[in-house]
Design a protein that fits this description.
25% helix, rod-shaped, alpha+beta, 11 strands, Sortase, Chain: A, 9 helices, single chain
């Protein structure tokens, strides 16, 4: 059967539309979708097969999306990029999981072994554990004993863990004076304003100067310490000797060294000027020694001055002097004199 005039006209219209669509597709890819939505293309039974196939192809192309789908994903994150090591982070506030081999096994398996293995029984701080290996951090290198002469000071531990300048220990029964004695090799005033750990400031340390040897064989050895009134520490409690009853009752103090214990008898508590004793008196000279201590021994027992009767002091004696400040008297020093008796 031949094509009627209407079918031919319809075919021409369809062909024209197809040509129009092809031209628009070449001009811009965003346009065909809009045109396709406004034009309805249909294939009838009278449409030639070649034309019908072309229409179906064009319709199929117009339905395909005109944009590219882009996939977004979270980048890989290594465990060390997370705040796992930061203080206060417990791993629960972030819902992230990593294989066990990536999560710092030294922290989850043995949190204390590498840094402080000695702390399995004692929960003190790291600093205490490292500097003091036994039960009582501040007293571990120093034994307790009812007999002062039997005390043992672990100087190896003190010098290794505390300060290498420690070379002796001073203890004054009846007071809280129980401290290491230090000497700086070059700066006599260093421990006047530096603490045991080397930090600058008060209370400083108990120390001797390079005017004295470290063998305690000088005629007069002078130990210095601050009068820490606010805390009652260092040499503050030397002022207890200002009371006659305390002076009478507390007769001795002790100096410990790595190889011996030295016992000194307190023979005088004395208010003196702030002169530098070792620079101003040649105690190695008998006349100078006798002149100075003759004045001390002749002092009246009143006020803060006290002298013990029956104690022999000669130019052959070994004297240790404990020196500290006096409140509101910057030009004076309070001195406790002890003579070696063992």
């Amino acid at each position: 059967m031949g094509l009627g005039p209407i079918s031919v006209a319809l075919l021409l219209v369809i062909v024209g539309l197809i040509i129009f669509l092809c031209i628009k597709l070449k001009d811009g890819k965003n346009e065909p979708v809009a045109v396709a939505e406004n034009v309805s293309l249909e294939v009838s039974d009278d449409t030639p097969k070649s034309v019908a196939d072309k229409i179906q192809e064009e319709l199929k192309e117009s339905e395909e999306p005109e944009f590219e789908i882009i996939e977004f994903r979270t980048p890989d994150v290594e465990p060390e990029d997370l705040p796992v090591e930061e203080e206060g982070y417990n791993g629960e506030s972030m819902e992230l999981e990593f294989p066990s081999e990536q999560t710092a096994p030294e922290k989850t398996e043995e949190p204390e072994k590498t840094s402080k293995p000695e702390k399995t029984e004692e929960p003190e701080s790291t600093e205490e554990a490292e500097t003091e290996p036994t039960a009582e951090p501040t007293q571990k290198p120093v034994s307790k004993s009812s007999d002062p002469m039997s005390r043992v000071i672990d100087f190896a531990t003190l010098q290794t863990k505390k300060n290498g300048h420690i070379y002796a220990w001073i203890s004054v029964p009846g007071t809280n004076i129980d401290y290491p004695v230090l000497r700086h090799p070059t700066d006599d005033g260093y421990y006047l304003y530096h603490n045991l750990n080397g930090s600058e400031g008060y209370p400083g340390c108990i120390y001797t100067e390079n005017w004295n040897s470290k063998d305690w064989n000088d005629p007069v050895t002078v130990l210095y310490g601050h009068d820490m009134r606010s805390t009652g520490t260092m040499f503050h409690q030397l002022h207890k000797f200002e009371t006659q009853s305390f002076f009478d009752k507390n007769q001795y103090f002790y100096v410990y060294t790595p190889d011996k214990t030295l016992k000194y008898e307190v023979f005088a508590a004395y208010v003196h000027s702030n002169e530098h004793l070792l620079a101003n008196h040649e105690f190695g000279n008998k006349d100078s020694f006798d002149a100075f201590f003759g004045t001390v021994l002749a002092a009246s027992n009143n006020g803060a001055n006290h002298v013990r009767d029956g104690v022999t002091v000669t130019s052959d004696s070994k004297i240790v002097t404990l020196s500290t400040c006096i409140k509101n008297k910057p030009n004076n020093r309070y001195l406790i004199f002890g003579v070696l008796v063992n």
